[in-house]
Specification:
Low-confidence stretches: none
Largest sheet: none
Distance between the termini: 6 Å
Number of helices: 14
Shape: globular
Mean pLDDT: 84
Strand content: under 5%
Length: about 300
């Protein structure tokens, strides 16, 4: 358990640093946002590109890996949406957002730092294999959900979607890294050192920025819905991934751990942006983000222990 805490506490400690820095007015919320923008646009793409460019990609398509993760995430989404409507009297739009929150975790800001801390460089390819599909899939599904009530032509929505993918830094970094690896060109010298120096800043900057963002989210009002979403995200979704990955598709340990840790990451901040744009469930999603981020300190430690990481 001491080794697990050594993995978890630095990650969530940096989130606490960002939260306290904004709360104590040591930095502004806008500064925290700028740090996050730097991580998202430059540092994390550099890390992903370098990892893929210098790694051997799988010889076969990992269908079982993808089925374990995305199948479980889809089940969690549908179950959360159904239970929210059935037992918590959520409106249809609120239930859709609750399902989205149970499916979309903070994989980049929480999942990647935890996995890198636990496994080092060997986890780069499993991470990219999920993000490479998760990014376009989540953008497509979220866009369709948010825009389905809009009056704009479907062609415009399609163009917005394609533009979003074509300018997404992480998606572009993954594609470029895969192409570079396939080319057989060796990455070394000053370019490699530049990417390394840039990439290592991504994790701490992302975590501090997330803490600054959480400083905005309160847990006021009724918390039953936020707590329900948090349980579905932190417990049910990773449990479904584990069952499929360990007992149906028999994934290798590093791949299984990557899928489960990604699934148990707290609710992603992007869901709040969707709620804000759609003007529904804003308080519910804000609560879910704050509650799941706090509860994830304990739940993530338990999942790491269960997986035998750092034990």
């Amino acid at each position: 358990m001491t080794q697990i805490l050594a993995i978890v506490l630095p990650v969530f400690g940096l989130i606490a640093v960002g939260l306290l820095a904004v709360k104590l007015h040591l930095i502004t919320a806008e500064t925290a946002d700028g740090v996050g923008q730097f991580s998202f646009v430059l540092a994390m793409p550099a890390y992903l590109f370098r990892t893929l460019a210098t790694s051997a990609l799988p010889a076969t398509i990992p269908w079982g890996y993808w089925a374990s993760y995305f199948g479980a995430i889809g089940l969690s989404w549908a179950l959360t949406q159904f239970l929210g409507r059935r037992f918590l009297a959520m409106a249809r739009s609120e239930a859709v957002l609750a399902g989205l929150a149970a499916a979309m975790g903070n994989t980049v800001m929480i999942g990647i730092p935890l996995l890198v801390k636990a496994y080092g460089e060997q986890v780069g390819v499993p991470i990219a294999l999920i993000l490479g599909l998760n990014l376009p899939l989540s953008m497509i599904i979220a866009t369709l959900m948010v825009e389905q009530a809009a009056s704009g032509p479907q062609g415009q929505m399609g163009r917005r979607l394609m533009r979003g993918l074509a300018t997404h830094p992480l998606f572009l970094a993954i594609i470029a890294g895969v192409l570079f690896s396939i080319s057989g060109i060796k990455l070394g010298g000053p370019p490699d050192q530049l990417l390394l120096a840039l990439g290592v800043t991504g994790v701490p900057c992302a975590l501090i920025s997330l803490g600054g963002s959480l400083a905005r989210y309160g847990i006021a009002g009724r918390i039953d819905r936020g707590l329900f979403i948090s349980v579905m995200k932190l417990v049910v979704a990773p449990a479904l991934v584990y069952v499929l990955g360990a007992h149906v598709f028999h994934l290798p340990p590093v791949y299984l751990a990557t899928a489960v840790v990604f699934a148990c990451a707290p609710v992603g901040v992007n869901v709040y942006l969707f709620a804000l744009r759609h003007q529904t469930g804003i308080a519910m999603i804000s609560q879910a983000i704050a509650l799941s981020s706090v509860l994830a300190v304990a739940s993530t430690s338990l999942w790491l222990w269960f997986l035998g990481i750092g034990g």
